[in-house]
Specification:
five-stranded antiparallel beta sheet, alpha+beta, 27% strand, 39% helix
């Protein structure tokens, strides 16, 4: 059984460890696991969201919807603390998406591509 990367989340600026941990906890579920890349830029924590081998495209879309909802909820919590979600969603087949400027709908659409 192989794993499929759903996305990677590049943290563009330093986030408090508690805020990053909250994002990681929000994304962890039965369907996915998180992986920290071994190569990192100085002062940057990146997270790769991995899902187990999917049975079909519909299941990957479902995982994407769950991930997008978790990210949107996490962003709302940061905004309530007057903080920016200084992260960029990345995937080899999609353009990067800056979570500081993207709308909730854009995040959902990004995962559904």
């Amino acid at each position: 059984m192989s794993d499929v990367p759903l996305c990677s989340i590049a943290v563009a600026e330093q986030l408090a460890a508690a805020d990053l941990e909250e994002l990681e906890m929000a994304l962890q579920a039965d369907f996915c696991k998180l992986q920290k890349p071994t190569k990192r830029l100085f002062g940057v924590d990146d997270v790769v969201v991995i899902v187990g081998l999917a049975t079909g495209a519909a299941q990957l879309v479902d995982y994407g919807i769950k991930a997008s909802k978790a990210i949107v909820k996490w962003r709302q919590k940061l905004k309530a603390k007057d903080l920016d979600a200084c992260c960029i969603l990345e995937h080899p087949r999609r353009p990067p998406l800056d979570l500081r400027t993207a709308s909730d709908e854009e995040i959902l659409e990004w995962f559904q591509r």
